Amino acid sequence: MSELASVGIDIGGTKLVAAALDAEGGVLERRRMSTPATEGDALLAVVVELVTALAGDRRAPVGVGIAGLVDLDGVVRYGPNIGVRDLPLGQLLAEQTGRHVVVGNDATVAAFAEARVGAAVGHDDVVMFTLGTGVGGGLVVGGEVVRGRNGGAGELGHVIVHEGGRACPCGNRGCVEAYASGASIGLQARERLVDREISSSLREVPELDGRDVTLAAAAGDAFAIDLLADAGHWLGVAMASVVNALDPSIVVVGGGAAIKSAPFVLPAATESMTERLMGRRFRTIPEVVPAQLSDDAGMIGAGLLAAREAAR
Amino acid sequence: MSELASVGIDIGGTKLVAAALDAEGGVLERRRMSTPATEGDALLAVVVELVTALAGDRRAPVGVGIAGLVDLDGVVRYGPNIGVRDLPLGQLLAEQTGRHVVVGNDATVAAFAEARVGAAVGHDDVVMFTLGTGVGGGLVVGGEVVRGRNGGAGELGHVIVHEGGRACPCGNRGCVEAYASGASIGLQARERLVDREISSSLREVPELDGRDVTLAAAAGDAFAIDLLADAGHWLGVAMASVVNALDPSIVVVGGGAAIKSAPFVLPAATESMTERLMGRRFRTIPEVVPAQLSDDAGMIGAGLLAAREAAR
Asked: Helix, strand, or coil here: A287?
């Protein structure tokens, strides 16, 4: 039987998943619950309880991935979807559990999981885009997670693809998130359907969002298929910029929205990226692949990272 | 007296600089010559001769920075300005000199030099843009040079700022190089001067290029100043994308064209970058600074990198 090596926790805007993990990121036991809609205190109490439930008296470091900007000291500076600001989650959790704790951005730790035990095993230089309501990302360079000065590295949703273009929730314009996120795909569908000439099953859907577009595409709706290919085109532009900057050997696309939309988004993204790579005749073009760890990536990556940092 | 620690060589499109360096990248002795306009053999012979002249019988590894795509084995896959293709420079140089040899892209090794002994001393996460005839770049993450799978990391001139925009020499459209390189600034000046209403001293300059624009700006020409501010604006858009991706603590701007144009380009670049950073209210904004090592950066960085790799 595999031994407990870490506890991994992923705190998302709506749900929280946690697991006892072995040294290879294998799940020994898992828990899943709604994220407390609250101030930081209740969130902290829930996390401490989960750690106790999963690890008991056994020694194990704790890794937490959370949707937000987390600095290198484990302070959640800003987590808009969770309602926390300047919460010293790493320090509080270490004090209350007596364990080694690592806290990082959810997409950053997810990229580490995919690199170590997922779609990018064997790759030292990995770029990961996560597609969900927004667009996020994570980077692994030379086998190490890139966290940056503020812990803010990997915000690939805010790579600008068209200066002055579509408005992005971040306040800027032209970010790839404004073209390829679930929210923006839903919005673009509604904008285009103003043209009454367009025939699509989506016309009948109330409060249309990106998920509906993916479902319609899967059912063969040509308008929906076009929308996802366009999102893929823009995603490929952002990929080209990041690949020109980092020259990774693989690009992984994950996140909740990618699971079903990948067959419609990835071919266009791969084509548009490849066309735009600097020196494309003289280099190996990175593979573009779907993520493998699905919703578990953040939890597994957080645990693997905590185990590695604790061992140093 | 400082001891020889490495020989650093920078092979550019027109000139070749080399030096005997101490362990801190200090120049003990230097040579400078025109780059042989030739096949690889003559270039190799010149480099071997320089190494012998600078190091004699003393033990010292050799670092070479070269304008082109250099893979991780030291093969110059493509050096358009030097006229080489698939030249195994690292291996040939090691065989002929019996020394440890490291070959890398010139801007990549320049970034390492600025991080270790130049404008970014004390910073572990450094983004460097180099402005010249084209736009290049180099990255340092966690104190290590980022080379990528093909050795092609750091091609920041081909970060796309405006999909479908101005044509770039790489064959793509909308790369920042198409807006902020010396060549493109000259081209944009010529394009705008078709409007006979514009008054500028540049109207009288034959075969106008980016250097002429910088000279005119320095002399107070408002049209030239505007052109450089526009180039800075676009440079800032690319900086925002790269900073959102990597979250460095400093952005260095170097390269031959930056030395005199920096006062006109950097303020606009800094402003445009800052406005576009994700979570700008919750993070430390990286400084944007001019490079310090000028034309020596590539040579020094190559030597420092060779010394470090030889010691491992």
From this structure: strand
Q: Is B23 within 8 Å of B3 (Cβ atoms)?
A: yes
Please tell me the distance in Å from B196's CA to the nearest CA on chain A: 28
Beta strands in A203-293 (DSSP E): 250-254, 287-290
> In the structure, how many helices (H) and strands (E) does chain B have?
9, 13
Instruction: Specify the pLDDT at position A103.
Output: 98
Q: In 10 A of CB A257, how many CB atoms?
A: 27
Residue B186 C-alpha from the chain's centroid: 19
Query: Does the beta carbon of B198 lie under 8 angstroms from any beta carbon of chain A?
Result: no
What pLDDT sits at residue A259? Answer: 85
Chain A contact set for B77 (CB, 8 A):
279, 282-283
Among chain A residues, the shortest Cα distance to B128 is held by A245
- The CB-based long-range contact list for B191-196 (8 Å cut-off, 24+ gap) reads B192/B223, B192/B227
The encoded tokens of residue B261 equal 């144009």
Diameter over CA atoms, chain B = 65
Structure tokens at B231: 């180039």
pTM of the model: 0.96
The answer to whether the Cβ–Cβ distance between A148 and B247 falls below 8 Å is yes
* Of A257, A249, A245, the residue nearest A213 (C-alpha): A257
- Cβ of A149 within 8 Å of Cβ of B242? The answer is no
Contact A118, A291 (CB under 8 A): yes
Q: Is the ipTM of this complex over 0.85?
A: yes
